[in-house]
Amino acid sequence: MSDQQSAVMIEADGLSKFYGDFAACRDVTFTIRKGEVVAFLGPNGAGKSTTMKLLTGYLSPSEGVARIAGHDMTVERLEGSKLLGYLPENGPLYPDMTPRSLLEFFASARGMTGRHREQRIEEVIDLCDLSSVVGKAIGKLSKGYRQRVGMAQVLLHEPDVLILDEPTAGLDPNQIREVRDTIRKLGESKTILLSTHILQEVEAMCSRALFINEGRLVFDGTIAELRGDGKPLEERFHELSGVA
């Protein structure tokens, strides 16, 4: 493995987040290397979204360190954010804006100018297949198209690392396939951590899985290792969730 391939792009080092006596996550530790597409699994309320928010610097940890490409996201958030694209579940979009005006707004916010700015806007419109709706109000678009707008905004500044929280939640099967194809294409050049409840997506897109339950990391391994003795992934999900 080359130095470039082995570079650690996402790192959780003893991450914990406490709200009073409640631990949303506790002592979560893992690393994701350049070029990996990793599924982040667990039941609702297990701590996935909290861990992702800690990794992105959106939340500060009670204990531990989150790093993006070596940048401590508590003290070097701006530097880390330049390399990071984060799509939260039900990410905020401005319903009165069009996809193009939203992308122009975020390009300006990121300091993108001139020909490069216009070129990147056109590239993400094409990549996320938004050309047919680029002039329509976002509030009037289907959930599938709104999710694509969110993805385009995430990709605009060409981040090396993507953290995607339930990117296909609430989509129909056709929309899921489109988003999945986009993510698979992005996985050829990006490092991706992907939260999902759809286990078929794990097999279709990911080489490795992390599983969190009750705030603690209970599995970190390949998809083959997750299957163990060939059990269906649904059965392994139940086992790791502590469901009999």
Description:
- Helices cover about 35% and strands about 25% of the residues.
- α5 (about 115-125) runs antiparallel to α6.
- The protein is globular and about 50 Å long.
- It has two domains: about 1-85 and about 160-175 and about 185-244, P-loop containing nucleotide triphosphate hydrolases (Rossmann fold, 3-Layer(aba) Sandwich); about 90-160, no CATH class.
- It has helices at about 5, 50-55, 75-80, 100-110, 115-125, 145-155, 175-185, 200-205, 225, 235-240; strands at about 10-20, 20-35, 35-40, 65-70, 70, 85, 160-165, 190-195, 210-215, 215-220.
- The model has no long low-confidence stretch (mean pLDDT about 90).
Topology:
Layout: H1 3-6, E1 8-19, E2 22-33, E3 37-41, H2 48-56, E4 63-68, E5 71-72, H3 77-81, E6 84-87, H4 99-109, H5 114-127, H6 143-155, E7 161-165, H7 173-186, E8 191-195, H8 199-205, E9 208-213, E10 216-222, H9 223-227, H10 233-240
Oligomer status: single chain
Instruction: Estimate the global geometry from the Cα principal axes.
Output: globular
Order of helices and strands: HEEEHEEHEHHHEHEHEEHH
- Order of strands across the biggest sheet? 6-7-8-3-9-10
Largest sheet: 6 strands, mixed
Terminal residue distance: 40 Å
Overall number of domains: 2
Low-confidence stretches: none
Number of extended strands: 10
If you consult CATH, what is the topology of the largest domain?
Answer: Rossmann fold
- In DSSP terms (H or I, runs of 4 or more residues), the helix count works out at 10
The overall average pLDDT, rounded, is 90
Helix content: 25-40%
Computed Rg: 18 Å
| Beta-strand content bin | 25-35%
The name of the CATH architecture of the largest domain is 3-Layer(aba) Sandwich
The name of the CATH superfamily of the largest domain reads: P-loop containing nucleotide triphosphate hydrolases
Output the structural class: alpha/beta
- What is the level 1 CATH name of the largest domain? Alpha Beta
